[in-house]
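Technical note accompanying the year-one report. For the benefit of new consortium partners, we illustrate the data format agreed upon in the data management plan: each record pairs a sequence with a structure-token string. No post-processing was applied to the example shown here.
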Amino acid sequence: MGTNLDIDNPVFVIGTGRSGLSPLMDLIAYHKIFAWLCQYNVKFPAYYGVSFLRRIVDLPIFNSKLKFKKVVPKPAEAFPFWNQHFRGFGRPFRDLVEDDVTPLVRRRIRHAVSEVMRFQAKDRFIAEYSGWSRISFMKSIFPNAKFIHIIRDGRAVANSLINVGWWNGWEGIHKWRWGVPEPCMLEKLEKYSYSFLALAAVQWKILVRNILEKSKLLKKEDLLLVRYEDLVKNPYKIASQCLDFLGVDKNCKRFKKHLSTVKIVDANNNKFRIPAWKDNMTKKQIAMLNDVLEDELVYLNYLIGVP
């Protein structure tokens, strides 16, 4: 491994945020073929050498639940790493597109990814990021990139967003980074007196629309859509589907053992740090989100109704 760097064929796991990126990465990123960014790339984004630490989890002792201990390298979104090479990567007010990629940015990002792969002695790169799709941006840098889009019920995402410390919706639509919503969305917000739950739902609505629309630019073989609800129901099946999509050996003995160490919690229906969304909202609030998100929930085959 590490002698045949396939830099043109990376994998990007994307989603709106609070949609299941971490559990999906926990399942598939530990395959022996993959290089990835970890929490140490977040802390030291300019020093590629810290990527070497990821090799720790290749030691036999860490093919167990030990790999999930806090100090052990684990996959991370690592926006500071990307921001080193394109300053607006982490917090743009709109989606990033091909025209944002200058020759310098292209060289910097390709070099950075190749260095991570070299230090980790891995042949293929996988990364996660949330928010805007950044699909055409990444495709212009990595022509053969593949994308796995994980999607989750927007009501569950809204419930999660208002319970994390970093959500910036509290300051309203003129200070958050998703732009002013379309008139139809503003009407819904005004209808519900700019409820913060409704605002969190609109954020999901904006981002899921963006990712679904930009996904149309991709060839069928370059995109896989995964539902969070399917992931928590049958994680091994989803892991197998992802590896098949990526053309990666799913029968690797080490990887099969890894899968047995991963615990996936269904946070839609069980308490996980916060109560499940159906238990954490009143019937009135659920009805509000059903109204705000109706088009997307119907399109994505999520049941609408008050439990």
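Partners are asked to follow this layout when depositing records. The chain is about 40% helix and 10% strand.
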